[in-house]
Each structure stands twice: as C-alpha cells, then as structure tokens.
Design goal:
mainly alpha, 12 helices, single chain
Length: 275
C-alpha cells in the first residue's frame, strides 16, 4: 500500500468520525457458523455429556422394556407387540420432556450470563448462533436418547424374544421419534429467544406435551392431526407394520412445517435482541 493510499484512508476515517460514524466489518448471514457448530458439538461429543445422557436413557427406556418383555409368558408375537408399543411411545413422550429440560437453558442461560453478547461481539452472526444450537442439540440428543437406546433395544429383543422385528419398519418408528425430538428442540430454543427466564420456556413445552398425553381422548382428531400428539401411537404402528389411520401423514407434514416456522421465528427474534 502506497503512502498516498494510506493518507486517503486516514482522511476517510477522520471524516467519518466527524460525522459520528465508525467503520464496521460486514458479516454474512451464516458468518462464523463453522466455529459455532464446532463449539456446540464439542460440548456434546467432546465431553462426557453424551454418554451420561445415553446411560440415563438406556436405564430408563431399556430397563422398562426389559421388565415388560420378561413379565408375561405369552406368545412371542404378542409380547413383542406389547414391548414395542411400550418402548417407542414411551421414548417419544419421555424424550420430549427430557429435551425441554435439557435445552431450556441453551439461549436463556447464555443471555443471563452475558456469553451470548460476548459471542455476538465476535465475527459470528446471530443466525449462526441459533442454527448451530439446533443442529448440535439435534445430533447430541438423537444419538444419546434415541439411537443408542433403540439399537440396544432391537438386539435385546432379538435375544429375549425369538420373534421377527423387521428393521426397516423399526427405523421408520425411530424416524418419527427423531422428528418429535427436533420439534421440541426448536420449540424450546424459540421460546428461549422470546422470554428472558427459564420458567415460561420450560412450562410451555411441558404443558404442551402433557396436554397431548393426558387429554388425547378429549381433543378432536382435527386438532390432533396438526400436532405432535399422535407421534407416540404413530411410531409404534410404523415399527410393527400395523394398519395406519387415514391421514396419518398429516401430523408429519404439520410438525415439519412447524419446525420451519419456529426456526424462522427464533432467527427473527434473536436477530433483534439487544445486547
């Protein structure tokens, strides 16, 4: 750079300062996403968090399913159906509540501690902050709370109950559980951008899950079809290749659209957060 160009830049900066302006470096929409994702994944997979979570879910889910499998000396096909109808719906519901408890602090905690403001002062965009958390929690919880317990369950049932459990339908049931998990991850993160305390974030998510579990028989089917409340039954039916009710795909489409909308709301709200 020549002396003349340096002088021109200095004069431009002085002129800008006199007008109350200051130079800033523009950031792309996903600026710093790679670093943010690496940091978030590291908190899951680079620490003992993932295997502690996996241990908890294996003890809970696989422990209950093992008790059910050994409880009644009935025909193999009947006990297999009962165990699958216990394991997958319980996994969908319990993991949903566990997800809310785990994720409730992801945004609110960082806002309270000031780490969110510190991260935003670095070359990282707010969109990257939210999307990195969604992906990291989805990967971490899917591995610890769904994949590991499900793999153990599949081989455990083949050993305890010599009955056929096709793996492709079982994977379809697991996919429904993962979609249910992702819905509550994004819901909790979105609520974290809308509220400044953990109370509303956890309460709204838990009330939503419990409403579906406790009042499912009183809620009109037309309403249920647009919620994740049918996912526990749907996951078991897919895994066992049972007849599916008409319109069974509507909740899947509705929840998928809901995830996209809630992600957009979280990005919009966090983008207007004042730090």
């Amino acid at each position: 750079m020549t002396t003349q160009s340096k002088t021109a830049i200095t004069q431009d900066l002085i002129l800008a300062a006199r007008k109350g302006l200051r130079p800033v470096a523009e950031r792309s929409w996903l600026g710093g996403f790679g670093n943010m994702l690496s940091k978030e994944l590291g908190q899951w997979l680079g620490t003992r968090t993932w295997w502690l979570q996996a241990l908890i879910w294996v003890l809970l889910l696989n422990g209950v399913s093992t008790i059910v499998a050994l409880s009644e000396p009935v025909a193999h096909a009947e006990i297999l159906e009962e165990v699958v109808q216990t394991f997958l719906p319980m996994m969908v519901g319990a993991v949903g509540i566990g997800t809310i408890i785990t994720v409730q602090d992801a945004v609110v905690g960082e806002k309270e501690l000031g780490t969110a403001a510190w991260v935003m002062s670095k070359p990282a965009s707010r969109s990257a902050f939210i999307l990195a958390k969604i992906i990291a929690y989805a990967v971490g919880l899917s591995i610890s709370a769904i994949l590991i317990p499900s793999v153990i369950f599949y081989f455990e049932m083949r050993w305890l109950i010599p009955a056929s459990l096709p793996w492709m339908p079982f994977l379809a049931g697991m996919a429904v559980a993962v979609l249910h998990l992702l819905f509550y991850i994004v819901l909790t993160l979105m609520l974290g951008t809308l509220f400044s305390s953990r109370g509303p974030v956890a309460a709204i998510g838990v009330v939503m899950i419990m409403s579906g579990l406790l009042f499912k028989g009183f809620i009109p089917l037309e309403v249920m079809l647009f919620t994740p409340w049918l996912f526990p039954d749907l996951s078991g039916a897919l895994a066992l290749e049972m007849p599916l009710p008409p319109g069974w795909f509507v909740p899947i489409l509705a929840v998928s659209c809901g995830i996209i909308v809630m992600t957009a709301v979280a990005l919009w709200r966090f983008g207007r957060e004042e730090f």
